[in-house]
Amino acid sequence: MDAHRRRSSPPAKNFSADQQPVKSMAKNPLKVKMMEQRDHDAVKASDVLPLPIYLTNAAFFTLFFSVVYFLLTRWREKIRSSTPLHVVTLSEMVAISAFVASFIYLLGFFGIDFVQSIFRPSHDVWTSEDDEVVLVREDTRKVPCGAGIDCAMPILTSPVPSVPKVADPVPVSFDLTEEDEEIVKSVVAGTTPSYSLESKLGDCARAAAIRRESLQRITGKSLSGLPLEGFDYASILGQCCEMPVGYVQIPVGIAGPLLLDGKEYSVPMATTEGCLVASTNRGCKAIMMSGGANSVLLRDAMTRAPVMRFATAKRAAELKFYVEEPANFDTLASVFNKSSRFGRLQSIKCAIAGKNLYMRFSCSTGDAMGMNMVSKGVQNVLDFLQTDFPDMDVIGISGNYCSDKKPAAVNWIEGRGKSVVCEVTITGDVVKKVLKTNVQALVELNMLKNLTGSAMAGALGGFNAHASNIVSAIFIATGQDPAQNVESSHCITMMEAVNNGQDLHVSVTMPSIEVGTVGGGTQLASQSACLNLLGVKGANREAPGSNARLLATIVAGSVLAGELSLMSAISAGHLVRSHMKYNRSSRDVTRASSS
Prior knowledge:
With 595 residues, the chain is of the alpha+beta class. Helix content is 43%, strand content 15%. The chain has helices spanning 29-41, 53-80, 90-119, 178-189, 197-201, 204-219, 276-289, 313-324, 326-337, 371-388, 409-414, 428-433, 439-456, 467-478, 485-488, 525-534, 546-572, 575-582, 589-594, and strands at 21-23, 133-135, 252-260, 263-270, 294-304, 307-309, 344-353, 356-364, 393-396, 417-426, 462-463, 491-498, 503-513.
């Protein structure tokens, strides 16, 4: 490219049907030849200049300021001698002509881009020269526009300035037919809603490809790095995700084996955080070498708490007393249990705020996480109560007294989902050889960090080192709701020296682990495979609910391993060093910046 300046504008779009933008592809020989011929034939502004551009600019700058100085001097003399200004000599006429010529040149070279930057229309109108856009009569592409972009640079014989390397886009193998092309144009124009593609086409994969192509054309951004092929889009229709355009890849690592309650489990963890799987794996090793961990399920009950409003606080209290009356509970439980084969009402706890009543329903939900199940049962009870309390105004099926996907003391105290405690006694030799620390140091660190430090921070359920790390990784790998990591990570980690201070007793108490092995994301192929690895895939027909309960104990056991390893790393001063090795650069940035 010659040394003339090129103006850059936002990407062009909204072309008419017979003028679709096509970007050059350097790997296509025909395209390269056409582009080289076009560049060869094109006449550039700098091509007509006899001198290099910097010398031409210097000459016009000198001419401009010299002529201005000359004219100002002449006009000052005319004013002093009372000579009319419109009377000009030949030299003055030449100077005025030179002034106009130099001004036009400088304005054209430097001023137009500045003026355009002020009055330039929105990015929907302008075309970028840097994108090498060519207008053609018909759009002859047979693949989505993201696959039509090739960022490879053509081979050049002359040196060029270095530019940031751009990775070649991942090609998309889905070909657009003429019918698909018409649908894409309809979606871009807004005549066909994007959300209706699945129902109109009856092909979820085709709908995702068309939606993806439409999005690329509307936004002018490529989705080439987002995979499209290799996913069963029909499996998420109406269940997991609406209007899909691809899927995100997250690596899955294995920690273990985790020896828990006499059985070994290989724990899948989906994460992008270095050291997490390795650290949890070390904790599993320490547990294994110490004879394994044990767990106890304390409670299994999902909750939902609607909010009702009455005319007076007295009337709200009357419903509270009615619901809490043992003689009425059996009736309400019978109404609730009709909504599901597995949903069984366990308790109702009420709270009043003025004339507003909150009723927290707790019920078992089998192997499902159970939010939908409990909501249906609650709706049945509310409809039943409406007969005896017609003045009850149901404000919402959820009044946040549940409490779902938010840190709340009610979950920390009363529990939600599965409440689990998991413990292990680590021998002194394992603490020294595997964890590289000592019992007294771990006990002191746990007291000052997990207990005192968390209390100083005003933590709510956060009396641990990093329980949410392990919970989130297992949740994503097994198809749980990642947002429920908020309350599922409520955990208090306890450490105590036992056997005359020789060994270490470690426990994690987690009152609200919300998991299921059926429904939601658990039925997707990848997540189902991870559940199968743990032996908890689907529903347990012999003992309904046992798979979900086992998954909750595995989560708690994995948290126990993660807590043990991280606390040991902090105690031994290895945390930063391990992250520098596995998760960060060890480069001396101060030395690099000065070099």
